[in-house]
């Protein structure tokens, strides 16, 4: 399995064959994990990935499972399991 590497930031294009874009707006995107990528925070496979460079984000529906957070200099990643 492959763990998302954040050592040089996060570029979705590095993982585009393993992730499916579900939703995107000006500052954020939600992706589904199609290939069992592993979370950079806990090294377990995750279901969804939310990536944002916005300063503030609000979630209307909270996921049922565990949530991991990972930060790069430019982005915040929220991973649900």
UniProtKB/TrEMBL annotation:
InterPro entries: DUF7385. Keywords: Cell projection, Cilium, Flagellum. This is Flagella cluster protein. It comes from Halorarum halophilum.
């Amino acid at each position: 399995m492959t763990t998302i590497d954040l050592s040089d930031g996060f570029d979705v294009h590095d993982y585009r064959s393993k992730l499916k874009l579900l939703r995107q707006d000006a500052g954020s995107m939600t992706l589904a994990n199609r290939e069992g990528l592993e979370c950079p925070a806990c090294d377990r496979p995750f279901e969804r990935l939310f990536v944002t460079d916005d300063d503030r984000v609000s979630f209307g529906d909270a996921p049922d499972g565990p949530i991991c957070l990972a930060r790069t200099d430019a982005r915040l990643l929220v991973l649900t399991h």
